[in-house]
Amino acid sequence: MLKMNVPDMTCGHCAGVVTKAVQSVDAGARIDIDLKSQTVSVETSADAAKVTQALDAAGYPAQAV
């Protein structure tokens, strides 16, 4: 389980872009987004660095929590 802070994620559109970015690395990932705390929890077998790179590429840099 990866838990990341995504400070630039502020709305539903942002959450959709973040979801698509994670799914580009692992289409079967389980994703839980909390806009209020700006956190994303991802249950995935993909490498954490690849998920973070995908988020960076989508314009939503993330830091592990």
Low-confidence stretches: none
Percent of residues in helices comes to 25-40%
Gap from first CA to last CA: 11 Å
Order of helices and strands: EHEEHE
How would a textbook summarize the main sheet? 4 strands, antiparallel
How many strand segments?
4
> Can you give the mean pLDDT?
97
- Rg, Cα atoms, Å: 10 Å
Q: How are the strands ordered across the major sheet?
A: 2-3-1-4
Amount of beta strand: 15-25%
Total count of helical runs of at least 4 residues: 2
Overall body shape:
globular
Give the structural class.
Answer: alpha+beta
Please describe what this structure looks like:
The structure is a single chain. By secondary structure, the protein is of the alpha+beta class. It has helices at 12-25, 48-57; strands at 2-5, 30-34, 39-43, 63-64. Helix 1 (12-25) packs across helix 2 (48-57). The longest helix is centred in the N-terminal third of the chain and has 14 residues, at 12-25. The radius of gyration is 10 Å and the shape is globular. The chain starts with a strand and ends with a strand.
What are the key terms here?
65 residues, alpha+beta, 4-stranded antiparallel β-sheet, 37% helix
Summary of the model, kept short:
The chain has 65 residues and is of the alpha+beta class. The chain has helices at 12-25, 48-57; strands spanning 2-5, 30-34, 39-43, 63-64.
